[in-house]
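Attaching the record inline, Q. Sequence:
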Amino acid sequence: MEIGQKVKVYRLRDRVSPAIVNKLGKVGTIQGYRMTDGSGVGVVVQFEDNSATWFFEDELKPAQ
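Structure, as predicted:
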């Protein structure tokens, strides 16, 4: 996954807020990366409504 790539949120690993649950199925653009727990890397995704949050790579897939 690369910065600028369009991705779709297709699953969520953990319990999250309703605002993030609403991103399920949405397409956004990768803006950067984030260390998650010292060993993992998350992906920061920005959506059309200008909101941004991070996801694990296995929660995303390339947008068609």
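Strands lie at 6-9, 27-35, 41-47, 52-56, 60-62. The chain has one domain: 6-62.

More tomorrow.
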